[in-house]
Amino acid sequence: MKNIMKIVLALLTSVSLVTSATAGELTVTGSAKATYNSISGGSLGASTNSGKSLGITNEIDFGAKGELDNGMTWNYQVQFDPSSAGAGTIDDTRLELTSSYGTLGLYILEGGLDTDNAASQSVYGRPSDIGLATGMTDGPGIDGVNNIQLHTPAGLLPFDGSVKVAYAPGNSKRTNSGNAQNTASEGSRFVGTSTTQVQVKLSPVDGLKVGADYYEVDGQGYASGILVQKNEAGSVFATYETGPFSLGISRTLVAPLILGSNAVLVHADGTVGYTAYSNSGAKEGNTYGARQVENNKMSVAFNVNDQLSISYEQEKSEQELIVNAVESDIKAQAVQAAYTTGGMTLSVSHGNTDNVNYVANNDVKQTLLAMTLAF
């Protein structure tokens, strides 16, 4: 990784010394979406049995692109979208330099390389990611921290292959502007000092796409919380399209951070107990904590015509707990349909999730209607 950083610094230095940028083209793209969400059932009261709700959201991308004197192109993008409180915020920023040698990218909470959901064929959204907090531990992405990436150039590898390598020094999770520095929370022994993620994708035959990623956090653990298991994860996926049909499958393994002292695991606050930590320091899984999480997903879609598509997806998440206890696996599934006319898409999703938050018999049903306008 040190060699990669040296190459990156050399590229940046050479660009600043021998090139200049011409005026770039400004773009504004995005979408506006209105939804009606109906959720019922569950054993956790108001947290899941939240009734019916209306919502409007938008994502607007402001971009600029141009070309340097040496033929290298550059691309800048920043996103404006609502926060959890409903107020607008600026986040997810990228700056990319591309040449015949590949792409150098700088990303602020952007640039995810995880492939755990790359196989999804759902025409609206995955069953576990459409407004219901299922508690599923999914494969982590490096877009959760600020990072720098190198991508191989198009056409270099056989089978239309691509390799992307990302490195996050400091593991900052803030929307930093220029000259920013980390806060005390970054680089802690729970957050870790750095994160690495690698992604590989191939198209070996017509209609078939395969890929994988690997994610690893370094620098975790401290004097009274000795590192027992580092936070790492990996996924593989495959999709296949033939005529109006498309299929997708994926498998993900997640190893949460586990810290221990004298063979007794400890919480972040120093109290004795059993738990597991993500790269952000938050506990994953149920009260006991998971040693490993395995996710298996499959989906299929059918294009009825140019306007109408339907799909079915099933996601299953299984925990292997640190201690001997009952393990309740999450299972989410949904049938969806989407109809597009002009720049508008009307979607409907109906499904259910069993054992929300890995709690037995905490079963929830969800029906969602959405209208999306692209611009």
Unreliable stretches (pLDDT < 50, length at least 5) are 4-19, 274-288
| Spatial strand order of the main sheet | 1-2-3-4-5-6-7-8-9-11-12-15-16-17-18-19
Instruction: Give the class from helix and strand content and strand pairing.
Output: mainly beta
Gyration radius from CA atoms, angstroms? 22 Å
**How many separate helices?**
1
Number of extended strands: 19
What would you call the shape? globular
DSSP helix fraction? under 10%
Main sheet attributes: strand count, strand direction, barrel closure: 16 strands, antiparallel, barrel
What's the order of the H and E elements? Answer: HEEEEEEEEEEEEEEEEEEE
Mean pLDDT, all residues: 83
| Straight-line distance between termini | 40 Å
Q: What fraction of residues sit in β-strands?
A: over 45%
Ordered list of secondary-structure elements with their pairings:
Layout: H1 2-18, E1 25-41, E2 51-67, E3 73-82, E4 88-99, E5 102-108, E6 147-151, E7 162-169, E8 194-202, E9 208-218, E10 226-229, E11 232-242, E12 245-255, E13 258-261, E14 264-265, E15 290-303, E16 308-321, E17 330-341, E18 344-354, E19 364-374
Antiparallel strand pairs: 1-2, 1-19, 2-3, 3-4, 4-5, 5-6, 6-7, 7-8, 8-9, 9-11, 10-13, 11-12, 12-15, 13-14, 15-16, 16-17, 17-18, 18-19
Short structural summary:
By secondary structure, this protein is mostly beta strands. The chain has one helix at 2-18; strands spanning 25-41, 51-67, 73-82, 88-99, 102-108, 147-151, 162-169, 194-202, 208-218, 226-229, 232-242, 245-255, 258-261, 264-265, 290-303, 308-321, 330-341, 344-354, 364-374.
